[in-house]
Amino acid sequence: MILYKLICKDCEISFDSWFASSKEYEKLKKKKFLNCHACDSFNIQKTLMSPSVFRPKNNTKIDNQSLNSKIIKKTIVEYQNFIKKNFDYVGENFAYEVRSKHYKNKKTSRGVYGTASKKDLKELNEEGIKVESMPWVKNTTN
Ligand SMILES: [Zn+2]
């Protein structure tokens, strides 16, 4: 799943939307299935995603128990590949990198991903820095 921040160029309302893949986004846009929630305009544009914000929402298909685990894993792997391609890996420095981004307010910089302890996450949360976690599976060829 991919979270895109979409913006309506007519009324300038922005909203978040989940897509199965970046291809799905392009397809929906082409077919004019993407319209503004407020004014119905098709003048919708994808903006930069908020850095470090990635998580399957509770109401997405990932948590639907009727889906078999293979599909779930595939979705997570696709999701991971997207993150690997578009985000900078900072490993153990995650909390530090997220903080420096937050305090320098670098809006156009790429998102980061890495590992953080529960303590780090709690502290970042207390500082008002939005960080999301997601399941991470090992890429195996089976
Ligand atoms: Zn609009």
Helices and strands, in N-to-C order?
A: EEHEHEHEH
Provide the structure class: alpha+beta
Quaternary assembly: single chain
Q: Cα-atom Rg, whole angstroms?
A: 16 Å
Query: Fraction of residues in helices?
Result: 25-40%
Ions, cofactors, ligands: which are bound? Answer: zinc ion
Question: Uncertain spans, ≥5 residues at pLDDT below 50?
Answer: 59-66
Give the N-terminus to C-terminus distance in angstroms.
Answer: 22 Å
Count of runs of 4 or more consecutive helical residues: 4
Let me know the average pLDDT: 77
Strand order of the largest sheet: 2-1-3
Strand content: 15-25%
The number of domains: 2
Biggest sheet layout: 3 strands, antiparallel
Shape: globular
How many β-strand stretches? 5
Describe, in plain words, how this protein is organized in 3D.
By secondary structure, this protein is of the alpha+beta class. The protein folds into 2 domains: 2-47, Rubrerythrin, domain 2 (Single Sheet); 61-126, no CATH class. It is 33% helix and 17% strand. It has helices at 22-30, 69-86, 94-104, 118-126, and strands at residues 2-8, 14-19, 44-47, 88-91, 112-114. The strands form 2 sheets. The chain has a 3-stranded antiparallel sheet. Strands 4-5 form a two-stranded parallel ribbon. α3 links the parallel β4 (88-91) and β5. The longest helix is centred in the middle third of the chain and has 18 residues, at 69-86. Zinc ion is lined by residues 8, 10-11, 13, 36, 38-39, 41. The site of zinc ion has 8 residues, from loops.
